[in-house]
């Protein structure tokens, strides 16, 4: 298949490209420097040139507090950007696989969210992603929407400072404590597991909305403690705080794990427990290489990584 990936320099885009390149004819837009998704003309022209059969639209602005402070930018990047990609896709007859989020739900439930639960976002980020989903469903007939929960992964070396897991491990090694919320629960998921699921699902053309998630639940602080413990550090260096202590502008979901009623019956796919996936991630050569960059941004040493 001819596949175009947007957001290729992001945490997820990095693994999408790693997983699909070589097996498919992949074109990657790293980010704004390649094509700014808010620019309708540039997007249409670049899609026309690439002539993809499938566009995995992973680019987005996921700074939850940033979105709350600048709602116009949130809608421009996440919602209008998605409209532009959909219009470009429609012009060349491409399928869109849109990467969405658990933030379309309010997180007030007592069980994981399923594909057929009604969205009800509680912050600007969630509203912009939910609006993006509606752009996809109203503009296209052939589409996938993949909602994913809190992600962890390796990501490109130059973004090591944005990698929460790597930064927590490095802080613990330097004897500094780490603060994370203990009252926000999700189903943390390895980006590589999402990429492998897309690899299996995309060729089936069984279009629709799907939840993709590793299994099990934990808090943000729990995830960081587990990562530090797996690499032999002291998990006690992670201090759990409540969301309200942080005084952040955007509301957060209290409980937003994702589960699926569709993925196993339609595709025969099952996901593994998040801790098993976390272990594979933090013990991988590429994650170890990321840690060796320390607190630098990796620009000097990313070649060959
Ligand atoms: N990470 C998570 O925990 C999580 C959870 C749920 C859903 N998601 C969703 O999954 C998708 C991928 O997330 P991620 O973790 O890979 O995000 P990320 O690491 O923040 O990367 C975002 C990507 O989008 C690109 N981008 C941002 N603004 C753009 C613009 N105006 N035009 C073109 N490209 C732009 C960025 O490139 P530049 O910065 O170079 O422009 C980067 O490649 C997003 O849609 C996000 O909403 C993520």
Structure description:
This protein has 305 residues and is of the alpha/beta class. It has twelve helices and twelve strands. A six-stranded parallel β-sheet has the order 2-1-3-4-5-10, with helices on both faces. The chain has a two-stranded parallel ribbon with strand order 6-9. The chain has a two-stranded parallel sheet with strand order 7-12. It is globular.
Topology (elements, then pairings):
Layout lengths: L1 E5 L4 H10 L4 E4 L11 H11 L3 E4 L6 H6 L1 H22 L2 E7 L22 H16 L3 E6 L2 E2 L11 H10 L4 E4 L3 E2 L2 E2 H11 L6 E4 L6 E2 H11 L7 E4 L1 H4 L16 H5 L6 H10 L1 H8 L13
Parallel strand pairs: 1-2, 1-3, 3-4, 4-5, 5-10, 6-9, 7-12
Antiparallel strand pairs: 8-11
Helix pairs in contact: 1-7, 2-4, 4-5, 6-8, 8-11
The structure holds NADP nicotinamide-adenine-dinucleotide phosphate.
| Widest β-sheet, arrangement of strands | 2-1-3-4-5-10
Please tell me how large the radius of gyration is.
19 Å
Portion in helices: 40-55%
Mean pLDDT: 95
Q: Count of DSSP E strands?
A: 12
Question: What is the CATH homologous superfamily assignment?
Answer: NAD(P)-binding Rossmann-like Domain
Tell me the fraction of residues in β-strands, as a range. 15-25%
Number of domains: 1
Q: Return the CATH architecture.
A: 3-Layer(aba) Sandwich
**Structural class determined from secondary elements:** alpha/beta
């Amino acid at each position: 298949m001819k596949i175009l990936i947007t957001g290729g320099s992001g945490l997820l885009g990095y693994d999408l490209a790693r997983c699909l390149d070589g097996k498919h004819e992949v074109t990657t837009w790293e980010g704004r420097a390649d094509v700014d998704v808010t620019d309708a003309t540039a997007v249409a022209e670049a899609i026309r040139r690439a002539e993809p059969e499938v566009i995995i639209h992973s680019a987005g602005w996921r700074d939850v507090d940033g979105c709350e402070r600048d709602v116009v930018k949130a809608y421009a990047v996440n919602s209008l950007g998605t409209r532009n990609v959909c219009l470009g896709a429609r012009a060349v007859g491409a399928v869109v696989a849109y990467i969405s989020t658990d933030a379309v739900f309010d997180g007030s439930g007592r069980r994981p969210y399923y594909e057929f639960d009604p969205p009800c976002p509680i912050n600007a980020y969630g509203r912009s992603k939910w609006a993006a989903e509606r752009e996809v469903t109203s503009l296209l007939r052939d589409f996938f929407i993949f909602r994913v929960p809190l992600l962890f992964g390796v990501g490109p070396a130059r973004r090591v400072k944005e990698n929460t897991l790597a930064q927590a491990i490095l802080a613990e090694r330097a004897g500094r404590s780490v603060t994370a919320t203990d009252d926000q629960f999700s189903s943390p998921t390895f980006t590589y597991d999402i990429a492998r699921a897309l690899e299996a699902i995309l060729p089936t053309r069984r279009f629709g909305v799907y939840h993709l998630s590793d299994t099990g639940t934990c808090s943000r602080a729990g995830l960081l403690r587990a990562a530090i413990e797996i690499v032999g550090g002291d998990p006690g260096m992670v201090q759990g705080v409540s969301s309200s202590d942080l005084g952040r502008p955007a509301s957060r979901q209290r409980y937003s794990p994702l589960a699926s009623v569709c993925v196993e019956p339609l595709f025969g796919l099952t996901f593994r427990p998040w801790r098993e996936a976390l272990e594979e991630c933090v013990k991988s050569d590429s994650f170890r290489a990321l840690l060796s960059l320390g607190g630098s941004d990796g620009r000097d040493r990313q070649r060959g990584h």
